[in-house]
Structures are given as structure tokens and as C-alpha cells.
């Protein structure tokens, strides 16, 4: 697992069909469920994403945006639409509410899957829950509205989406959700790779042959008894070379990065494994001494392991030196 892929751990589209809608103007869908990430793809037609307290973003056929929550946002036919906003959550509007066509697949009555019927717009939406601190690191590296680059890898998925929504078939929900997962990874990766962009240091560092390999090792084996010397040996450089290049590219020493990542993993384990002892969690992230683990956890997270498990408020960890 690489550093980028690790942050998507457990992130899966939830109920993408709630936004599987063909809309006839005027319309306004107000997304109120507070999803940490919402991916919106227009298969046909056009509209505007209107985030709360931010400038509207146009969205045309074949385009995708990712909206970071939990603030609500609206998808409208025109910025000054006369339509009354229809609240949308896990189950979007019914046809009698604002003209939304909500069903699995399309019929001639609803227009084609590309949104060509009667000036309609076809919208596919996937909502993504955040299951813990690992996913939260990804969120904190993203803008409130991320617009996918036209012509990028995400565009290749549109044909699959259009084909899947065109007919009712067994397993359609699963296929659509996985296609949106694919779209999400492609869109975020392209955002970080844009010329002139400012990706998190840990992301850009993955392209370096030495530091990138070190990051892969740390994420593949976070509980291993790493030292700077052992990491340097596995990457084929001297200890001093590894240390300097890692700090230059990531912004902190390799073992400091490793400690932060271990504490992020531990924060999730403490919540997910309710019956596991602190010593067991410590061992799972590479600490044989639970007291040393507890001290490191409190230093990094701002709360003790037991306090975190009880719902104590930690100091936000943020992305790894983003």
C-alpha cells in the first residue's frame, strides 16, 4: 500500500443511486445530509454547484466535481433559478417533488441516460462517509470544491456509468458505487498532479525513487521495528542521504512521519476494536511498551488513548505535513 492509496482505506460510495436523477428545469436539489465527501457527475445537460458561502461552480456534460462537507450545497439549473430547493439526503426527491426522476435506470418517459430528453440533466451522485482518522487526512488535503480535469482519467469512466444506468440489471447498485469509487480516486489523483498545483508534500515525495520507496515501506509495514538505518538499507542509500532527502521532500524526519502515521492508525483501532486493550493496540502499531505508546499518542494526538476511546477531543492531526 502506498501513502496515497492508504488514505482511501475503507472509503466506499454509499447509495449512489440517491442522485441517479434526470431533472427537467427549473430544478434545485439541496444536499443536506452532510456527507464528508460528495462526488457529482453530470452525464448529460448542465447545472451549477452552489456551495454554502462560496462562489457557484458550473458543471457541464461529462464533468465531475467533488464537494467536501459537512456544509450543505445545492445543485441548480441556473444560479438564479426560480425552483424551490428540494432537500436531498440518502433518498433524493420523488418525481412529484420538483420534477426529479429517481429510479434505477431510465425509460423513454424520463429521457435518455445522457440527459437528452426535453433539455433534461442527468446527475449521478455518490456520498462518502469518513470512517476515522485515516480518511480524515485525505479530506484535509482537499479544497471545498474540487473540479475534475476534463479529458483526464476520470472521463474514461463516464461511458461505463452511462451504460450502467441505462438499464435495470442485477447488481446495478454495486457496480455504480464501485465506478464512483474509481472516479473519486482518479479525480483526486489528477488534482494533486496538476501543473502548478500544490499537492501535499507526502504525495509529491512519492515520485522520488528514494523517499517514495521509504514511504511505501512505512505504509506497508507500519509496525515493523524501523530505524533510519534499516529504512536506508532497504532503499539502497546511506542513512544521511535518506534523512536529508526525506526532510527536504516530506518536511519531517522519517521516524517522526512514522510516529504520526502509527498514531493515526492507533486512533482508529482504539475506536474500531472496543474490546482490545491499549497494550494490544500498541503492539498492533509497533510498540512493545504500552507506556511508551501512550506517551507518544498523547504527545501527537493531545489526548490519552483511553481518553480518545471515551470520546475525548484530540488535537487535529492533519495530513502528514501537508
Model description:
It is built from twelve helices and eleven strands. The chain is of the alpha+beta class and 322 residues long. The protein has a six-stranded antiparallel sheet, with helices on one face. Strands 5-4-7-2-8 form a five-stranded mixed sheet, with no helix packed on it. Helix 7 crosses helix 8 (239-250) and helix 10 crosses helix 11. It is elongated. The two termini are 19 Å apart. 40% of the residues are buried.
What order do the helices and strands come in, and which of them pair?
Blueprint: H1 3-6, E1 21-23, E2 28-31, E3 37-44, E4 47-51, E5 57-59, E6 64-68, E7 73-76, E8 86-88, E9 101-102, E10 121-128, H2 133-139, E11 145-147, H3 158-165, H4 172-193, H5 201-205, H6 211-220, H7 228-235, H8 239-250, H9 254-272, H10 278-284, H11 290-301, H12 305-309
Parallel strand pairs: 2-8
Antiparallel strand pairs: 1-9, 1-10, 2-7, 3-6, 3-10, 4-5, 4-7, 6-11
Radius of gyration: 22 Å
- How is the main sheet built? 6 strands, antiparallel
Specify the structural class: alpha+beta
The residue fraction in helices comes out at: 25-40%
Count every helix, treating DSSP H or I runs of 4 or more residues as helices.
12
- Averaged pLDDT: 81
Estimated share of beta-strand residues: 5-15%
Net shape: elongated
Number of strands: 11
Strand order of the largest sheet: 9-1-10-3-6-11
Distance between the termini: 19 Å
Task: Flag low-confidence runs.
Answer: 90-117, 317-322
Query: Helix and strand succession?
Result: HEEEEEEEEEEHEHHHHHHHHHH
Amino acid at each position: 500500500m502506498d501513502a496515497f492509496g492508504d488514505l482511501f482505506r475503507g472509503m466506499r460510495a454509499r447509495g449512489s443511486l440517491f442522485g441517479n436523477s434526470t431533472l427537467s428545469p427549473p430544478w434545485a436539489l439541496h444536499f443536506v445530509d452532510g456527507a464528508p465527501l460528495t462526488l457529482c457527475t453530470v452525464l448529460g445537460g448542465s447545472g451549477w454547484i452552489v456551495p454554502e458561502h462560496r462562489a457557484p461552480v458550473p458543471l457541464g456534460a461529462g464533468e465531475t466535481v467533488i464537494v467536501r462537507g459537512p456544509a450543505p450545497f445545492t445543485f441548480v439549473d441556473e444560479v438564479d433559478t426560480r425552483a424551490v430547493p428540494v432537500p436531498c439526503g440518502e433518498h433524493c426527491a420523488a418525481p412529484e417533488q420538483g420534477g426529479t426522476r429517481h429510479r434505477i435506470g431510465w425509460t423513454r418517459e424520463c429521457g435518455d441516460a445522457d440527459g437528452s430528453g426535453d433539455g433534461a440533466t442527468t446527475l449521478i451522485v455518490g456520498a462518502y462517509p469518513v470512517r476515522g482518522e485515516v480518511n480524515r487526512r485525505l479530506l484535509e488535503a482537499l479544497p471545498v470544491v474540487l473540479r475534475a480535469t476534463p479529458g483526464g482519467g476520470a472521463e474514461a469512466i463516464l461511458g461505463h456509468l452511462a451504460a450502467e444506468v441505462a438499464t435495470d440489471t442485477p447488481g446495478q447498485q454495486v457496480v455504480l458505487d464501485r465506478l464512483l469509487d474509481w472516479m473519486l480516486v482518479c479525480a483526486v489523483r489528477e488534482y494533486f498532479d496538476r501543473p502548478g498545483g500544490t499537492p501535499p508534500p507526502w504525495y509529491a515525495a512519492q515520485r522520488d525513487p528514494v523517499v517514495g520507496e521509504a514511504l511505501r515501506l512505512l505504509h506497508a509495514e507500519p509496525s515493523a521495528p524501523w530505524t533510519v538505518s534499516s529504512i536506508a538499507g532497504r532503499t539502497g542509500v546511506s542513512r544521511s542521504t535518506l534523512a536529508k532527502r526525506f526532510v527536504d521532500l516530506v518536511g519531517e524526519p522519517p521516524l517522526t512521519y512514522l510516529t504520526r502515521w502509527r498514531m493515526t492508525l492507533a486512533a482508529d483501532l482504539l475506536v474500531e476494536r472496543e474490546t482490545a486493550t491499549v497494550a494490544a493496540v500498541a503492539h498492533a502499531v509497533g510498540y512493545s511498551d504500552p507506556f511508551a505508546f501512550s506517551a507518544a499518542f498523547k504527545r501527537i494526538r493531545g489526548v490519552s488513548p483511553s481518553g480518545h476511546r471515551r470520546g475525548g477531543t484530540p488535537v487535529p492531526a492533519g495530513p502528514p505535513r501537508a
